[in-house]
Amino acid sequence: MFGYAGTNRAITTLLGSDLDVLLVLGSSMNLRDTLFWSRQLATRTQIIQIDIDPTMLGHDYPVPHTIVSDCRQTLQQLCKFADEELRQLTQSAPARRKCTAELKALPAHFNTEKQTSDATPIHPARLIAEIRRALPHEIILFVDSGAHRAFAGHYWESFGPGGVRSATNLGPMGWAIPAAIGGKLARPETPVVVITGDGCRRMHGMEIATAARYRVPVLFVASNKNLRQKKSNRCWRKQFYCQILLRRTMVGFKS
Ligand SMILES: Cc1ncc(C[n+]2csc(CCOP(=O)(O)OP(=O)(O)O)c2C)c(N)n1
Fold this sequence. Notes:
Blueprint: H1 8-15, E1 21-25, H2 39-44, E2 46-51, E3 65-68, H3 71-81, H4 93-105, H5 124-134, E4 140-143, H6 147-155, E5 164-166, H7 176-186, E6 192-197, H8 198-204, H9 206-213, E7 219-223, H10 227-250
Parallel strand pairs: 1-2, 2-3, 4-5, 4-6, 6-7
Helix pairs in contact: 5-6
The protein binds thiamine diphosphate.
């Protein structure tokens, strides 16, 4: 995942010098998806943006090549060309495999040691790692708005399509709490979990009472920071964003 809370591997690949062409499927190339509209990505790389909604093309970001199309159909069409037009790519396949192997050798996340750290209070990276370890793969995770989303976005690897829900565009605090209750009512057979913050919980926490009253079993995890912990929370955030900034600086990010 590139952009907001993006992984080490994705940021290294997309801002690295080896990338020739970037095929973008169904992203509006907004601020979050493009790592604050990275100039480096725009100037270095040939970008092809594909979206079924024409108003999304070049809307937020300068994109030289655009295609109005259903992403699935486009990929199916591309696969049809694989035998003929794309045959020459087989020659360069070993180089691509080498590049992929090098990337996979990198840690996927920043600060990986925090995922197992015994520090008190518990580091958000450890919180996310422990929740992920404890829960079944078929869960739907709802993530609220706040620093906990940055950590969940970075450290949580989805178990499958539709496995994570978050209102990332507007970022309304507390949304995940009632949204998860709705999700559980719609899919009663699926375990539903919420990661929220103490601030979010103060805004919509009363809906937990609604869930209890109607016996809707949802697991709520609130990343709590009381006033005494606030300092360390700020410190974590700073560390986390510093890592991202550091990464951007190291790969020559200008803006
Ligand atoms: C309704 C609403 N008010 C304000 C904001 C701005 N805002 C975004 S995150 C945040 C703090 C969230 O705090 P908390 O729920 O404790 O989560 P944490 O950041 O500690 O993980 C604020 C005030 C918002 N997104 N939505």
